[in-house]
Design brief:
The chain has about 200 residues and is of the alpha+beta class. The protein is built from 7 helices and 4 strands. Helix 4 packs across helix 7.
Length: about 200
C-alpha cells in the first residue's frame, strides 16, 4: 500500500505567515487605540483643564496679574454686608493667606488679617495693599478705611488718600481697562513705594 504524503505548498505557507503578521498588527493597533483613547479623554477633560485652572488661580493671587473684572460682582453701596466683604477679599490677591475679617460699621472701617509675614512675600504684600484697598474702595461705596494686617506689619489706608491719588479717575476705575492702566500697570513698572506712601499719608 502506498502512503500519500501531502506537502503544503509554499503559497499556503506564505498566506499563513502573512495572516499571522496581520493578526499581530491588528492586535497591536487595537492595543494602541485602547490606550490612546482613554489617554486623550484624560488629557482633554481632566489634565489640561486642571492646569488651566491652576494657572488662573495663581494669576488671581498676584497683584500684577489679577483680573479686576472678576470681582465686579461684589460692588455694594454699604460695607455692612460681612459676607460680601469677605467674599471680595477672598477673590483679591493674597487670598490664599486670608485670615479673619473684622468690620467696624460705626467708623466705616475694616481690618483684614493675613496669615503671612511681609518678608515672606518679597514685595507682593505692598503691591496687594495698593491693589486690594483701591479695589475695595471702588467697589464698596461707603467704606472709608482699611487696615491690612500681616504677621509682622500693618498698613492703614483711607479712601480720602486713595481718591486724592487717582483724582478725577477714581470713579472711572470701575472700568477694568482703566483699573489695569491706573492701578496694575504702575505696580508692574515699579511705582509701588511711591503709591504706598501716598496711600498711607498721615498714618
Amino acid at each position: 500500500m502506498h502512503h500519500i504524503i501531502l506537502i503544503p505548498s509554499m503559497v499556503n505557507l506564505s498566506k499563513r505567515k502573512v495572516g499571522k503578521r496581520m493578526d499581530r498588527r491588528r492586535l497591536l493597533l487595537l492595543g494602541i487605540v485602547a490606550i490612546a483613547i482613554p489617554l486623550f479623554i484624560w488629557l482633554q477633560f481632566f489634565e489640561i483643564p486642571n492646569k488651566v485652572e491652576i494657572g488662573e488661580e495663581r494669576m488671581q493671587q498676584d497683584p500684577e496679574q489679577h483680573e479686576f473684572e472678576k470681582v465686579l460682582s461684589f460692588e455694594n453701596d454699604y460695607m455692612g454686608n460681612a459676607s460680601n466683604i469677605s467674599n471680595l477679599f477672598g477673590a483679591l490677591p493674597l487670598h490664599q493667606y486670608k485670615g479673619t475679617l473684622a468690620l467696624n460699621p460705626e467708623h466705616l472701617s475694616l481690618t483684614m488679617n493675613y496669615e503671612v509675614s511681609t518678608d515672606e512675600l518679597q514685595g507682593k504684600a505692598e503691591q496687594a495693599v495698593i491693589y486690594n484697598t483701591t479695589a475695595a474702595f471702588v467697589l464698596i461705596h461707603n467704606l472709608e478705611e482699611i487696615e491690612m494686617h500681616f504677621q509682622d506689619h500693618s498698613y492703614i489706608v483711607t479712601r480720602e488718600n486713595v481718591a486724592q491719588w487717582f483724582g478725577n479717575d477714581f470713579q472711572a476705575l470701575l472700568d477694568p481697562e482703566v483699573f489695569k492702566k491706573e492701578v496694575q500697570t504702575p505696580l508692574v513698572e515699579g511705582e509701588t513705594e511711591k503709591m504706598l506712601a501716598a496711600f498711607m499719608k498721615g498714618e
